[in-house]
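Deviations from the work plan: none for this task. Representative record:
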Amino acid sequence: MVFGISFMEYAWLIPLFPVIAFVVVGFFGNKFKEGGGAIAIGSAVIAFALSALVAYEFFTGSGDAFAPEPFKWLAFGKYELNFGIYIDSLTCIMMLFASFISLLIFIYSIGYMHGEGKRKRRYYAEIALFLAGMLGLVLSSNYFEMFIFWEIMGVCSYLLIGFWAFRHPEGDEASVKAASAAKKAFLVTRLGDVCFMAGLFVLLWAFTSLDFTVLFDPANMATVDTGVIMLGALLLFGGVIGKSAQFPLQDWLPDAMAGPTTVSALIHAATMVKAGVYLVARSYPLFIQSAEVMLVVALIGGITAFIAATMALNNMNLKRVLAYSTISQLGYMILALGAGGYIIATEMAHGDVEATVGYTAGVFHMMNHAFFKALLFMCAGSVIHAVGTEDMRRMGGLSKKMRITSLTMLIGCLSIAGFPFLSGFWSKDMILEAVMEPSSLGLEGQIFMLLFVLALITAFMTAFYMFRLWFLTFKGKPRDASIHCHGESPKSMTMPLMILSVFAVGSGFLIFLGLNDIITFSVISGDFVVGGHGHTPGHILDAILTNVWTYVSLAVALIGILLAYLIYARGSLDPSRLTASGKSRLYRFLAARYFFPQLYDQISWKLGYSVAKGVDYVDKNMIDGTVNGLANSVVGSSGSLRKMQTGNVRDYLMYMAVGLISAVIVLYVLVTTGGL
Amino acid sequence: MDLFNDIPFMVLLLLVPLMGAVFAAFTHRNRNNAKWVAIIFSAVTLALTMVYAYVMATATVPYLDADSWTWIDTDYIVISFSLYVDGMSLLMMALTALLVLVVSIFSSSESNSANTFFALILAMEVGLMGVYMAHDYFLFYIFWEVTLIPMYFLISGWGGPRRHYAAIKFFIYTHVASLVMLIAIFAMATEAAAGGPLNFGFDEVKLALAGMDTFMQAALFGMLFLGFAAKMPLVPFHTWLPDAHVEAPTAGSVLLAGVMLKMGSYGIIRVCLDVFPEGAKAWQSAMIVIALVAIIYGAYACIAQNDLKKMVAFSSISHMGMVLLGIATLSSIGVSFAIFQMFAHGLITAVLFMVCGLVGHNAGTREISLLGGLAGKMPIFAAFMMFGFLASLGLPGLVGFVAEFGIIYSFFEYLQGTEYLWAVMFALASLLLTAGYYLWAMQRSIFGRETDKIDLSHVHDVSKPEGISMGIVCALIALFGLMPGIVMKVIETVQIAGVV
């Protein structure tokens, strides 16, 4: 209770305000200044304030999940689909950072989207709906409700990635690209969504409900075959692979850079891709029923983290590098969740399982990543705003003209690279520790060993490509004289950068200030418990600082930074020697994103268009051909009747009238004379 | 309210549009009075339907009403003017009343023999209302044929360049199918009469045929099914539909796809399932296969189309396949959501055909390859198109999603007892294909480079009547998508024999 009001009862208002903003701005935005931007910001402020109140109330309360009686949305047969709220500590953390970062992005948009004219209305309406989708998703009390918000976010991303799908300020080519990128994002994630939907079917059939309170009840779980839960969990994870851009559906995210940079920040930091990670964390009770599922999760995460990082190594587009880094970091989170879950799954048979590092690390990294990735994207946006290009080859030496942007971006880069005591450092080391943990377990242990090595190499690559990006952009001499830098961005843009950089430095310390107790998952006498039972801060600090791997990963990261410095700032190493001036096979393979775009194209072309052409041929020539042939043969054999087809409506009308009248007469005669 | 209880709603719902049709026909052909007649009479019909729905909802036995007058009564044959309304009828009637009003508003700028045009639309409404209320096979058949005639004239009189071919094809195709149906009806009545007078009443026939052997049930089921399948239409009896749609005027297309196709699925549920439960079981596997073929085949055909309207026509085939899939599970969930899908598809497809009509009228062509970047010139049009397409691809929060979710779930549940669980993948794959063709069509027509293949200098955006009519339907799509419980409450009451 705060001010004598139970705000948790009113938590459903949190997504409602952005929805209202969506409707108001969507219909009447142009009547307000800046296309209704203030309304969108206002809704985010309210959402954040309410989230904070709800979170405060929750954390001062008993710590049990709050799930009031839901609204009965649709009943059919023995099933009931509900709408409700479900609040536990995971919900609180998610809605706090989602609404806070969205708020900063909304404020930043005022400066960034200033020149968009009448289109701003559409922009602010859509980002408000996007936020509503994310907040609704994290507050959902069942999978069906979650799926609805999940899809709403999908369509928002479609609309926003395609924001410039027509009349792009940079010309037609860019419009075409944006339209194609939007379609790709929707279709690829839709593939995952269809899996998600199949997962809903399996779970609904098994549990006759999709409410978390029913599904996560060990008593109900015992009545369902483990294989069915496993299938359901894997199908749900299919949705995660699509939404969180995991291997092999990762390729939509780099293309999604076609939208405004603020949209990228929103998608990568606060909403959309985080929804997938959240789904895994939320579904932990189901996922840990089978160690195999968790192994799959960890494998997908590890592979994704690694391959996405390799793709970032030689890309020259500022935003794309950040996109690959998001995919890679998401892979980290999934990997941590998988490794932690694997331990729980294998240990659950022996009774209680105290919180594993994996779950904490995954959620912790999701939060930290939200801060530094939002910061990085908005810095990138600030740079693009000033120089008008995304190509790093045409930048250079910008730190003198954009002091705030370059400094805040440096903080972001240090944080993501895992520089000591910045937020990324803590969570990344926890992830590495989490992956190391199950590596002593038999044959699968060796797989985790391999994943650990991959994660370590990824840490090196992350440090390298992030600093490659920073040095290329801000250091050295301007490489393109035709590029004119407008100088530092306006206050509405730099303010959020400065606020976020505070978090990019400091959010990691939250793990010592209570967060360790909030984001945990344990199994206590058969019950699944979120929150509580965390390790003490001292224990965490001890574990990180006395672990030899911490220093190895630190060394690896520092080497990465140093390498980037030597190549791109000092110029004492020539990268073209390593890559044969961009002609080496590996270089081209990475630049072509492992040929994933071609693979997608081929699949959609072969399975989509080619089959469609075949169906069209069958339809035109075989089915319709038969029909017309039949008709022609009838008409042909009765040449005299053909003359009736004058094509004149009046004649047809007459024939019909004659026919109708004679039919009535015949019927009348039959009935009255008793012929029938 | 007792105030309404004595109103003979069923008869009025036939008489009001009929009077409207007559009035409209007698207005001057070159003055635009006919549209007002059509709008007023269809608005009155809609209002009556709504009041009727309210009366039925509050009745002691909710959503059930029947009335009957003897029409022909001899020793040999008994035909009664028998009307019956339950939840399914009511939904279809509401849809009919709504869409007739909407197309009357949408087509208000029609100037080519406007009196006949609007008279035909109102005449269609009479036929459609009759089909959904008839409770006597003879009457049912008469109304069934009555719907055919105005549609034929709408296509051949106000259609595109190949309208005569399309109209004749439409007429012959569906007429042959209804003849098969007529034979089946006579066979049913004869069988039920067992030597006594032929009685065509729904209830009488059902009662008399209750103990019929499975073979006869399956045979009659098959004949009726054929008649209804051509109307829905199901692959391979569908080829009249794309042609009819491509040539038909927008108003005709909306009514054709929105409510006329539903006559087929309505017939399957009302007659085939209810009277021949054993026959339905015999045909169950075949129906499922036909449904899946229609869903996938229709979706693939959409991808290949270059004419937006033809694409939307094929999407109807795919979505009506969904309806059959729900029916084919023979479960109450499946049939409920099939009815839901009939309603949802009626609303969504209306928007789709209005959008296609608009682009054809305003941009001068519907060929996707000639379009491009229209969103810049016609932003409101683009918004409606996007809304309609997203609704049709099953976006959650809109009405189509609820129906598809329920139907595929009922299919999934049905498959649980069998070894064919993988078959659900076909239904799920269609969701992906549907998203594919819609998004691809949008990418090429409203996004990307602004086309220079057609003259865009005089293109104007949505006019006021067009915007109002599409806005009404879009609002309902969102309303019933967010609160599907309203519709489900009506559907729940429907009682069909042979459904578990």
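The longest strand of chain B covers residues 64-73.
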